[in-house]
User: Fold Orc1-like AAA ATPase domain-containing protein from Cyclotella cryptica.
Amino acid sequence: MTTVPLRRWIKASKEQATALSSTYLECSLRIAISITRQIGDAESGAASHGPALLPPPFPTASLDWVDFITVCLESTGETVEWNSEALSPSERNSLTASTGSSPSDNTEELLHKIAQDAKQEGEESQIEENEWIERAESRENVDYLRVRSAQIVYVGGTNQVPTRREKRNRIYSLGLVFYELFSGGMLPPPALLISSTNDDDGTVDQGEGRGCATNNEDNAGPWVDFASAVNVSDEVGGRLPHDNVESNGCNDWYVTASIPNKRRQTPLSSVHSMSSGQSLSSPGTIPVLGKISVEYLVTKGVPRPLCDLICNMIDCVNGDFMSDDSYEDMSHVLSDLQLMLEKPSIFLHNLDVDKLSRTGLELNDIDFVRDNEYVSLQCAYQRSIEGSSEMAIITGLSGTGKSTLANRLGHYVVANGGLFLSGKFDQMQQAKPFSAVASAFNNFCDALATQEESEHARLVASKLRTALGSDLYYLAQVIPNLSQLLKENFCHQSSSHDCVNAQSRLHYLFCQFVDVIASCFEGPVTLFMDDVQWADSSSISIIGQLLKMSRSFKNKKHLFFLGCCRNDEMGSDHPFWKMVESVNVLGFKTAVVKLDVMDRDTVNQAVSMLLHLSPRLVRSLSDIVYQKTKGNPLFVSRLLRSLNREGLLRISLTRHRWEWDEEKIQSRKLPDDVANFFVQSINSLSCDVKVALSFLSCFGASTDCAVIQGLENYLQMRLTEPLNVAIDEGLVSKLGQRYYFSHDRLQEAAYSMINEQHRCQQHMNYGLALMNLSAIDLSSGNKNLFFTAVMQINLGGPSAVQGNAEQYYLISSYNLMAGKKAMEMSDFASAFAFFEQGILFLRENHWQEQYDLSLELFNLAAKCALTIKRLTRLDMICNQLLQNARSFEEDTLNISLISASALTFSKVYDSVRYCLIVLSQLGVNIPESASRDDTLNLVTQTQSLLNSIADDTLLNYQVMADFKKIMAMKFLAKLELSVLQTNPALQPFVTIKMCELSMEYGLSPMSAVGFAYFGGMVAELGDVRGGHRYTKLAKMLIEKFQSNEYAGEVIWLATEILHYIEPYQTANEYRIGGQRTAIAAGDVHWACMHKLLYSSSLPHLGVSLSVTKEAMDNACCTRDPLWAERGKHYKEKITTWKQEGSLWNFENKSFLLHAEEYYSNGDFDNAQVMYDKAILSARQHKFVHEEALACELAGNFYLNRGNALAALKHFTFAHGKYLQWGAFAKVKMLYAFIQETFGDAFVAAHVGAGSDDLQFDHLNTDIHKKRSK
Assistant:
C-alpha cells in the first residue's frame, strides 16, 4: 500500500485521468467518504483504535486541514521508497504524522512553528515544491486512481467530546477541503476571520472584521463577480434570508465585509486575523466564511448535487442562521456521499431541468425500494441457470409494484445474455386462446423476424424445421408470427385433426419450440407471466408442461418461470396454484416473493430517488405522502405526478432541483383508496377524455389500435384525440400498435365509471360493430379482431340482444365459428367456452328452428368437454344430443363414440359393454366367449385369406366409404386395448373382425390397428415372419393415411415383433421414433411405453451399464412428467376397477399405488398408512408375490426416511415372502442388498431369520366385512 499527501494525489491523478472525469470523481468520492467516516466515528466515539484526536474546528492562516490528509493507494506490486528529506515541508509534516510519530505535547508551540515555516517559504516554497514533485515522479510509477482510503492525522487535535457548534464548524472546514478536492485543486477564496462570540447553540454575535484584503481587479479570480454583491445588514447576522440569495443557480454566503479577490497561493496565507501565536481554541474568535459561491465549480464540470453538498457544508458556519438544507451532523454528510458513489445516476448526475420543465416528473416506477426482494429473485434465477429446477412467484396486493420488480429482473436477465419473454393475462380476454402465453412467444418471433440477416433467426428457423417439420402448422396457429420467422405461409395449408389428444400435441410442440430457442442462444430462457390470477386453464397447462419438460431439454438449460399475481384474488384451489403443486412434486422449488405496502422510511427512499435528492432533504415531503397514501407504491407515484401537474411539486430553474409547497400539499384532500383516487383523476378531465377512457376499459388492460380506429369511424366517436390527451396525462400509453392503461387499477377505475345497467349493452354494441367492420376478414387469418368481437358480444350476454330470434342465432353462429378457430389452435378450454356461450344464446325451440346449428354446437362442445375432462357437463350434453338427434347413422354414433371415450377415463368395464352394444346396433357382433380351438381356427382362416393377397394389392385396396362401417372400425379400435385389460379372451375376435371389415368394405386408418394386433397374434402362435409381414403392412397404412392418432400404438406393436427379425440395435431405434410420433400426436400412454421398452432393451444391446442405468432411471423415475401422468391415470383406473369390479383382485394394488403417490408428493404420514394397508390386503387376499413387493417398497420408503429398523424389518419380511413364492433370483439379490446396506452384525442383532411377522392392528380395515356388504 502506498500513501501520498492529498495535494500530491490531486495533481498526479489529474494527469492520469482527465480532471473531473467520472473516474476522478469516483476516486474523490472514496477519499471524501473515508475522511468523513473517520471524523464522524471520532465525534461519536466509534473509533476502534482507542481515544481519537479530533482536528481543530477551523483551518487558520497557519494550519490547513488539507496538509494533514493522506491518500492510501492500492499496491501495484512496486514499493515506493519515500525520502523524507526530499519532501516539501507541508508534506513532510503530514507524512511524518501518518507514520506514527507522536504529536508534540505543546500544541500551540507546534502550530506557531508551522505558521513561521509557511511564512518564510513564500513563493520560493511553491517553486521548491513543484521541483520536488517533478523529481518524485521521475523516480516512481504509481497508479493514483487505485484509491483505497484516506485519513486525516490530527496534529494538535483534541479527544474531548465535541459541542454542537464544533460539529458544525468541522463540517464547514471539511467543506473547504471538498471544494479543493472536487474542483481538481482549485483553492476556495480566503475565509475572513472575524472576532465574534458563538454560544453552543450556534448563535453568532458579530464583531469587527480585521485584516480584510482590498479588492484588486488586477488579481481578480473567479470570485470577483460576487464581491460587489455584498450588501448585508447586521440585523440578519451577516446573512440574507434564503429567498433572496438564489442567484445564478447556487447558494451565496454573506458577511459584513468585502471579499478578498486575490486567490491564495498557500493555504490561508493571504488573509488572517489571528496572531501567529494565538491558539486556535482562543475564546471569542471564529472564522466565518465570506461570500462563497460554487458557480465556478459548476463551470468546471462538478455535478450540481456535489456543489450543493459543499454549499450546505460551508453554510454550517452560520449557526442558527444556516438554511434548512445545511448539515447538522457528519453522519448526514457521509450518507449523502455514499449515495452519490453507489447510485451516481440518481444522486450525482445533473438533472436535465430544461427537459423536466417541459415533461414534468418522470415516473420511473418505484422498484428501487424492493432491493431485498430483487436479490431474492436474482438468487432464484441464478440457481435455476446453474442447474436447479426453480421458479419464482411475486405476490401482493394491486399496486405494490409486482410487475415493476419482475421487469427489473428482466433487465438483469437480458443484460446477462438471457432471453426474457413476457406476457400478460387480461380479465376481459380470458376466452381468447392462449392470450398471454401466445403473445409472449409471438412477440419473440416478431422481434427475431425483424432482424434482417440475423444469424439467430436463420439458426432458429433451421432447427425448428428439422425438429418439428410439418407439425409447425399447428404451432403457427397459436404463434402467427412464426410464419414470418420461417418465411412460410401456413394459412392455407390443410390441417389434420387425426390426433389422440391435440392439446397434448400442442404441449409437446411448445416444449420442442422452447428447447430449440434455448439451444440457439447462449443465455437461458425466462418466461414471465403477469396477472396469473386471470390465467386461462389452457395457458396454465402449457406453462406446467414447459416446466416439467425443461428438465429434459437437450441443452440442459432449465426454463425459469416468473409469475405475478394478486394473492387476495385467488384462493389455494386456483388452477395456477394446483399447477405449481404438480411441478413441485417433480422436484421444482418455488421462491415466493411477497410484496406489501411501503413503510414510512421506504416511502422516504422512494421519494428521494424519484426527485434525485437526499432522503434527509425530502423527509418532510415523504412524510406527507406516506400519510396520504398509506405506502401504496402505485398511489405514491401517481400522487407525486398529480402534485407535479398542479404545480405543487416543481423543478426550479435557478436551483436546478425539485422544490415543493408543503403547506398546500398537506392541505390537499385525497381519497383513502387508490381506485377512488384514479376515479377522481379521471373525473377531472374533459368529457371526451372520460368517454374515451371508459370505451377503452371495455376491452381490458390493452387494446389493438385497429379496434379503436375501426370503431371510431364506424360509430362516429371521437377516440384518438382524447386518448392522446390521456397519454399526455400519463393514464394511457401507446406502444407499437396497442394502447395500454398505465396500470390495471386505472382500467378498473375507468370501467367502474360505466353504469352497470349500460355495460352489457355497450359490450354488445361494440362487438356487433366489430363484426360488421370490413376489416374483419377471417380468410386473411386476422383472428384477433374476430375473437375480440365475439368476446365483447359474450360480455354483453343474451339480455343485451335487441332484435328477433335471428339475432340470437347469428350470435350463436359467431360463437360456433370462434370455437372452431380455438380448436384449430388446440385450445379446447377456450373452444368449449365459446360453444357454451353459443348454446346460451340459442332460443327455447332451437332444436326445431335451427337443428344443424344446435347439433354442431352440442357435438363440438361434447368433444371439447371430453378433451378437457369436463365429464359431468359432457354427460349432460350427450343426453341432450341423444334426445334430439334425428339421424342415428351420423349423429348418434358420434355421440356414442364420445360417451365410450369418456367412460374409458373412469369406468372401463362400462365402456366395453357400451361399445359392444353400439357395435351390435351397427350389425357387428362379438361373441361373449369361445373355445381355444374355435379361436385358433378363426385366426387360421383369416391368415389364409390375407396370405392370398399380395402386399401391393393390399396397400392399394379400396378405401372404406360406408359411414356405419367406419364408425364400427372406430369402436373396434377403441375396444382393442380395453378388452385386453378386462377380458383378454375377446381380444382375438375384435382384431379379426377389424381385418374382415377391412377386406370386405375397404381400408381405413383403423385397419392399421387391426393388422398390427393380428400380426402379434400370428407371431405368438409361432409364425414370426408372418406376424412381421402384417405389422409392416400396418405401418405402411399409417403412412398412407397419415394417421397420427394410431401411429404410436401401431409402431409399438410392430417393433415388438421386429426384434425377432432385424438386429436389436436397429429395432430399438424404432422406439425413439415411436416415442416422438406418439407424443407429437398427444398420445402420452404409448409414448411412455416406447420409452420404457427402449430403456429396458439397452442391456441386451451391450450398451455401457452407466448409460443403461441413466436411461432406466430417466424412464422409470416417477418424477418424469410422462410417467407421473401415466401413473396417476392407472391409479385412477385400478381404483375404479376396485369400486366397480373385484375388490378382491384390485384393492391391494390400489393401496400400493396410493402409497407410492403419497411418497412422491412428500405426504409421508399417509404413505405409511397406505403401505401398511397394501401389505395387509395382499396377505388377506392370498397374493404372496404382491405382499412381498409391497414390503420391499415399504422398506425403501423407511430407508429413505432414515428409519433403519423399520426398513430392515420390511426388507427381511419381503425376503421371506419372495422365498415362499419361489423367486430365488430375487431372494438372492435382496439378501445381498440387505447385507450390503445394513451389514451382517446389524442384521443378526435385529432380525432373526426373517420369520418375524408384520403387525397391523392399528389399521381399521376389515376386508371381509367390506366383501360381505
In short: DSSP finds 56 helices and 19 strands in the chain. The longest helix spans residues 107-139. The mean pLDDT is 77.
